[in-house]
Amino acid sequence: MEIAIRRMEERDLDRIMEIEEDAFTTPWPKNSFLLEITSNQLARYIVAELDGVVVGYGGIWIIIDEGHITNIAVESKYRGLGVGKKLVEGLIDICRSSNIKAMTLEVRRTNVSAQNLYRKYGFKDSGIRPNYYADEDALIMWKEI
After folding, report:
1. Measured between alpha carbons, how far apart are the two ends of the chain, in Å?
2. 116 burial type by CB count under 10 A (0-12 exposed, 13-18 middle, 19+ buried)
3. H or E element in which residue 92 lies
4. What are phi and psi of 82, to 5 degrees?
5. What residues are annotated to the active site?
6. Minimal CA–CA distance to 71: which of 81, 56, 54?
7. C-beta separation of 99 from 136 below 8 A
8. Number of domains in the chain
9. What does the angle CA 138 – CA 143 – CA 144 come to, to the nearest 5 degrees?
10. Which domain range does residue 119 map to?
């Protein structure tokens, strides 16, 4: 069972929306993803495929010498298979190839499994962003590259 990482394309958007609705209580609209991959010069989005099926995705904005992870999602039935790990590695690879010096992200304070994944890759807690989500604060994490 091999997880392949590739650039997100417009043809992926219907599947991305299924994952987005599965993963988040307040999903992004499809048009937001379309604008990210077609118009936002700062954005880089990738998908994870398992046996030819898109099972997760991740995005990052490259801003000067920093990478800001915008989102990572894995469909619930594919969690625990290493998909999230491959997506984080893919985003780190994008940053390395772009000569990025540091990466950051926000994560729900209650999402301990995601926090642990990020810590495994060297992200460190650096603060709290109050009311970042409609119902919860976010933990801010940073990683030097």
Report:
1. 30
2. exposed
3. helix 83-97
4. 95, 10
5. 106, 118
6. 56
7. no
8. 1
9. 150
10. 3-144
Tokens of residue 52, six digits: 């030819």
| Residue type, position 60, single letter | I
- 108, two tokens: 């729900």
Helix (H) or strand (E) holding 55: strand 53-63
CB atoms within 10 A of CB 79: 14
pLDDT by residue for the chain (145 residues), tens only, comes to 799 999 999 999 999 999 999 999 889 999 999 999 999 999 999 999 999 999 999 999 999 999 999 999 999 999 999 999 999 999 999 999 999 999 999 999 999 999 999 999 999 999 999 999 989 999 999 999 9
Instruction: Report the C-alpha gap between 32 and 29 in whole angstroms.
Output: 5
